[in-house]
Design goal:
294 residues; TIM Barrel; 2 domains; two-stranded antiparallel ribbon
Length: 294
């Protein structure tokens, strides 16, 4: 090997070493940021629900999550479509592989993990459901906050086990999952990939106590839509937590005792100002931080 070749080899090796060290330090820094974000909220992976950011383009939405010091986002059809979505008289098809790749790029650039998708209704068409799970899996989504047809649960659980994407049954104000008790009955006896997403707003609208609901669901609690409402009726406004009917501290005291998975979806939701959600989300996070540190 001539001298110039040796010099080039040493430079290339040095460049490779520097790049490897930089990558390692970058990953370590990112992990420290995530750990600090969890410590700010009692060790929980606090995230934002995508409905709060529905008026924003994906890049702006993800940048807002990062600006809030968070690393977790629950996606909705406003960010990506796992199945067909009806908007007025228009039916939009599921998102393309290219759109999914682009969203993954945007999320990765800001070190944001998609914790869940939902709420989403799931029927009994197994082929359709498989495509939904395929898209969820390709995004790295761990939980589907879902409203399934109960007769379809056996087939859905098979897909959940196959894809390692959990079903988190979502309580509503009407229909077959119109209470936390109904969700608890539906998941009872199921495997570890079937649990519950507690929508606190819907619990409050149904005059249910969110803390008692969390205790009822116990280890089945995989997701939380953390929000407050202006009134105990189905059409009430979603406002800053702690300014309506939710006792935030009492709720998290129960969650702490019940336990919440590190890969669960804890999603703060604020819908009162869709055109300017940042102040409401920031205040909600402040309230949550105080409540989870007690």
């Amino acid at each position: 090997m001539i001298a110039t070749d040796k010099l080039w080899s040493r430079r290339r090796l040095l460049g490779t070493t520097v790049s490897a060290v930089a990558a390692y330090l970058g990953k370590m820094h990112a992990a420290q940021n995530r750990d600090q974000a969890k410590r700010n909220y009692g060790g929980y992976p606090m995230g934002i629900h995508g409905a709060s950011l529905a008026a924003l383009a994906n890049e702006a939405a993800v940048e807002m999550v990062a600006a809030l010091g968070l690393h977790w986002l629950e996606l909705t059809a406003a960010q990506i479509r796992l199945n067909e979505v009806r908007r007025g008289s228009t039916i939009e098809p599921p998102s393309s592989p290219q759109e999914i790749r682009e969203l993954r790029r945007i999320l990765a650039a800001s070190d944001i993990t998609p914790t869940a998708f939902g709420p989403i209704q799931l029927g009994g068409e197994q082929d359709l459901n498989r495509r939904i799970f395929d898209r969820a899996s390709s995004l790295g989504i761990r939980n589907l906050s879902c409203i399934p047809e109960l007769r379809a649960l056996d087939g859905l659980e098979l897909l959940a086990d196959e894809h390692r994407v959990r079903l988190a049954l979502h309580n509503n104000t009407s229909g077959h999952l119109d209470s936390v008790a109904a969700v608890r009955r539906a998941v009872q006896g199921r495997g570890p990939n079937v649990g519950a997403c507690l929508d606190i707003g819907n619990a409050l609208r149904g005059s249910e106590d969110p803390a008692a609901a969390a205790e009822t669901l116990g280890p089945r609690l995989l997701g939380i839509h953390l929000k407050d409402v202006s009134a105990r009726r189905p059409d009430s406004e979603v406002i800053v937590i702690g300014t309506g009917f939710l006792n935030v501290s009492a709720f998290f005291n129960v969650v702490r005792n019940v336990g919440f998975p590190d890969d669960g979806a804890l999603s703060l939701e604020y819908l009162a100002r869709p055109d300017d959600p940042l102040p409401g989300l920031r205040e909600g996070l402040r309230v949550a931080s105080v409540a989870t540190q007690r």
